[in-house]
Amino acid sequence: MAAKRNEDSSLMDKIVNRIKGSGKDSPNQVDPAQKRMRFSIWYFVAALFMFFWFQSYTGVQQTEKISYSEFKQWAREGKVESLVVGPEHITGKLKAEDGKPARTFVTVRIEDPELVGQLEQKGIEFSGYVENKWLGTMVSWLLPLGLFVFVWFFLMKRISGGAQGVLSLSKARVKIYGEKDVKVTFADVAGIDEAKGELEEVVEFLKDPEKSQRLGGRIPKGVLLVGAPGTGKTLLARAVAGEAGVMFFSMSGSEFVEMIVGVGAARIRDLFKQAREHAPCIIFLDEMDALGKARGLNPMGGHDEREQTLNQLLVEMDGFDTRAGVIILAATNRPDILDPALLRPGRFDRHVAIDKPDIRGREAILKIHAKDVTLSSDVDLKKIAAMTPGFAGADLANLINEAALTAARRGADEVSMAHFQEAADRIMGGLEKRNRIMSQKEKEIVAYHESGHALVAMLLPGTDPVSKISIIPRGIGALGYTQQLPTEDRYLMTRDELLDRLQVLLGGRVAEEVIFGDISTGAQNDLQRASDIARTMVMEYGMSERLGLLTYTHSPQSRYLDLGLGSNEREYSERTAQDIDEEKSRIMDEAHQKVLLKLKNYRDSLEKLAKTLLEKETIDGDEVKQFAEEVRVRTSAAGEKP
Asked: Which DSSP string do the residues of 244-305 spell out, in sequence order?
């Protein structure tokens, strides 16, 4: 019996625990107090409909509508117990019969002078009332009006996004990060040591402003970060906030401009108001060119909303005191189009240029991004940095990610050097398209075309060494490519080096002439790039003896962003324009003749390289170096001058 009671007690405990588990103490149950009810207008409409339906249904069930003649008949027969006579209706109650409950009825009142006498004669109790029409009329007006107002507010809230509604358009939609929310520090920034050093001083201003003001100095109000896309401007600004341990207000320049006039200026005021309340802090304005474009550049003329927003920013930057500990950081890749009033001292006091990293900077950036990646023992980050000239920090981060994805796609346990090479080829040349069907004739043309580029590059000492040749289609229109990797970072190029590069670009086209006696459309991009080199030599670099030391272009484009923009106004005569055209043609013709002579003299080497390409599709590494060494030995033995 005791065992039985223990089993029953255990069973009851389980049941009780099961019931308790369904309450809010259950780990799988959400606390009802923490639930947010999602209200919908359709709930309100459904509830209103149910109320009217219930009222009409219950009224129909309890009150029977009859004709006036039937009411008079019931009154003569003495079936009516009591009546309530109104201005328009008569409501009555029948006597109970045979244990049945009393029924109520209603009928339309008709002018009947004999009605009162008949009711008194039969002894029927009756009374009257006067309807309150004012209350009904008011309800009939207020109910639809209240419903309309409710629907309007509900829709406005949905359309305008809740807290960012019509009434809050003037509020700055700023992203605010607390002192401990910004996890980025200067340790996460590499490859831009000079810019980092400039901003380390800004951190000192925020941490210890008295130190900088001890001798009468003034803390800079603003710092403008200028650089190409992907160089780390935003990362550097976040690192400043992380190092200083202050609040970080981040907004994009495009978030200030709206269709409604005055909203942008109001948001500027609200942003600076919040910054003053939370000082010391940092205001970061990304894509500053969207907000700070020079006034008067609007082709339609007039005083538009963007200029009004810019004017408010200028006023705010003049109005706040740097002793409050508010510093403005802004980032742009188009400093050439910013308003001069924005760039003067007293607003953006410091301009920090962030250039693309050199080979040592690229290696440091690769080390940071490769910390969480499982690397193979054959990976040499220094070699990867050497084969990625011109890559910005974002490009290098993408390279690491693509290599890791490639290794995972291949089922490898580690990321090897081959995966990095494949990722670099994919980023620089595009995705391989091995399934593209090409005829044998087209493959031969592409093979000789790429062999021409490579052979000319091997014959000229002033060009970058060839690292890879491929006839596998890549990207959108590339049927093959020849990869040259510089041995060091270059910031200047001589006239001879430009002419050598021009000859390399013409090598593919000339190889088709030498082998097939015909040309194809595959050299379109090569000719465009070669023409650009010839044009810049004549018009920008003053490398034409005929035209002298003059430039003939006025280009307002940013040196950080190659948009191909230039002035449509020509500042030279028609005769000079003819001389420019003739000089460009002369440079191209001379380069063409030199390349034609080289490839005719080395036709056997050209055919050997092309046949190897047709067989293997891709040549790289030691095989390319060996072929280049054979060409160099042959050139030295013949005593030929490139």
From this structure: HT-EEEEEEGGGS--SSTTHHHHHHHHHHHHHHHT-SEEEEEESGGGT-BPTT--TT-S--H
